[in-house]
């Protein structure tokens, strides 16, 4: 299912592969994020129950210049996993950049396929245990057709990491898109359109809502590719939480977890007990929709999803064999941000949300190394004079506070 706009989209991503990336930068840093961080996949998709030794068959559908592909392939390589990542994108220019980045890292666990996600039913790929699809569905003429194609190659018990645009946090974007569509119609060449876009941005009136929106910076720091993708994209649809849930429902899918869960919990933003009680009576989708409407600053929705008939059951963080793991930032670094009052401040696109931690949390965070079990940690703190009951209470409070902000998770079993 394609239309005339697809040719304009194809021309855009050949002229301005997105996001702008230089393979030489691979020697300096690995770009990480959500979705598709391996520790997130282990926990949010598979509930920290799928053994790390089991090869992961992954698809990055709409791989662009390679961020998700490079991150996941690097993570699998680092832990010696025999799994492979299939990169799929229809842009030759984007694939060249992604391949160069993989070569710079010496990655050999990636299969490269040029094509559209709409071609999946005929490509003979899969099945895949995990599918990443970021920034693609909202550019399709029929997003449900794209999602159906993805679900069709998803293995039983597998899951997806999806990203779609959200409307409230993109206030101002669509106004400028409408202006640019008049001044630089989509049927003009990408080079001509970007020139007009730059001129408009240099003279954008003070009253334009995009000037007040600080939820993204692609048009400021993302180069020509960033400006074009944000403001000149010929097809761009945003989904509210409710819209997204409805889209997932067309393929029998549902959200396993939004990133980060705390942001989508209306209790985070409602200090009034009576309002919290009202919110708690809503369905999980309506609670997330309420949080979206209250905050008004969500510019994208990032979510891990599974089939509704195959909900994830996450491992119990309180059992002795559970292995706590820091998602990315080491515990020794995270504790440096804890305030004297025991609160750890978080920012969600400029919106503050402090997390309260028990007094024992800094010591526990220092001790988490991704190897020690809960029983090991209990024994360690017993040696330091902390009783078993006190430790378990402190650990329960620490995990309950930091799991919803995606900082402390549970590691998957090694075998």
What does this molecule look like?
With 415 residues, the chain is of the alpha/beta class. The chain folds into three domains: 5-168 and 237-307, Vaccinia Virus protein VP39 (Rossmann fold); 170-232, no CATH class; 324-410, no CATH class. It contains 17 helices and 13 strands. It has helices at residues 5-15, 38-45, 67-78, 92-105, 120-123, 143-152, 173-183, 190-202, 218-221, 223-232, 241-249, 273-280, 284-295, 331-334, 361-367, 374-383, 388-402, and strands at 57-61, 84-89, 110-114, 128-134, 154-165, 253-258, 300-307, 324-326, 343-344, 347-348, 351-352, 355-356, 408-410. The strands form four sheets. A seven-stranded mixed sheet has the order 3-2-1-4-5-7-6, sandwiched between helices. Helix 6 (143-152) links the parallel strand 4 (128-134) and strand 5 (154-165). Helix 8 (190-202) packs across helix 10. The chain is globular and about 70 Å long. The model has no long low-confidence stretch (mean pLDDT 97).
Give me the secondary-structure topology.
Elements: H1 5-15, H2 38-45, E1 57-61, H3 67-78, E2 84-89, H4 92-105, E3 110-114, H5 120-123, E4 128-134, H6 143-152, E5 154-165, H7 173-183, H8 190-202, H9 218-221, H10 223-232, H11 241-249, E6 253-258, H12 273-280, H13 284-295, E7 300-307, E8 324-326, H14 331-334, E9 343-344, E10 347-348, E11 351-352, E12 355-356, H15 361-367, H16 374-383, H17 388-402, E13 408-410
Helix pairs in contact: 3-4, 8-10
């Amino acid at each position: 299912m394609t239309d005339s706009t697809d040719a304009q989209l194809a021309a855009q991503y050949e002229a301005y592969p997105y996001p702008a990336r230089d393979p030489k930068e691979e020697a300096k840093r690995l770009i990480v994020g959500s979705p598709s961080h391996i520790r997130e996949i282990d926990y949010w998709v598979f509930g920290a129950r799928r053994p790390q030794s089991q090869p992961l068959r992954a698809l990055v559908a709409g791989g662009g210049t390679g961020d998700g592909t490079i991150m996941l392939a690097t993570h699998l390589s680092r832990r010696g996993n025999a799994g492979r990542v299939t990169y799929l994108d229809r842009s030759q220019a984007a694939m060249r950049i992604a391949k160069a980045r993989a070569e710079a890292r010496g990655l050999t666990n990636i299969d490269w396929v040029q094509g559209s996600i709409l071609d999946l039913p005929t490509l003979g790929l899969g099945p895949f245990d995990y599918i990443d699809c970021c920034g693609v569905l909202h550019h399709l003429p029929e997003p449900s057709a794209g999602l159906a194609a993805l679900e069709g190659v998803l293995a039983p018990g597998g899951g997806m990491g999806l990203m779609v645009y959200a409307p409230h946090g993109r206030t101002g974007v669509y106004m400028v898109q409408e202006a640019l569509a008049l001044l630089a119609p989509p049927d003009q060449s990408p080079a001509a359109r970007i020139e007009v876009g730059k001129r408009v941005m240099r003279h954008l009136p003070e009253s334009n809502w995009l000037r007040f929106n600080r939820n993204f910076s692609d048009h400021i720091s993302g180069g020509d590719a960033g400006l074009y993708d944000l403001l000149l994209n010929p097809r761009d649809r945003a989904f509210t939480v409710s819209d997204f849930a409805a889209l997932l429902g067309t393929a029998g899918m549902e959200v396993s977890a939004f990133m980060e869960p705390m942001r989508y919990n209306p209790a985070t933003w409602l200090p009034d007990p009576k309002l919290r009680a009202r919110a708690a009576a809503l369905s999980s989708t309506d609670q997330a929709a309420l949080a979206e409407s209250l905050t008004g600053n969500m510019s994208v929705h990032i979510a891990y999803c599974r089939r509704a008939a195959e909900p994830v059951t996450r491992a119990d963080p309180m059992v002795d064999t559970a292995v706590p793991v820091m998602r990315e930032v080491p515990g020794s670094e995270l504790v440096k941000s804890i305030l004297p009052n025991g609160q750890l401040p978080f920012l969600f696109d400029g919106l503050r949300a402090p997390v309260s931690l028990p007094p024992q949390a800094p010591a526990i965070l220092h001790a988490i190394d991704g190897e020690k079990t809960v029983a090991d940690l209990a024994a360690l703190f017993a040696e330091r004079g902390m009783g078993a009951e006190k430790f378990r209470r402190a650990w329960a409070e620490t995990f309950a506070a930091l799991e919803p902000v995606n900082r402390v998770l549970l590691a998957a079993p090694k075998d």
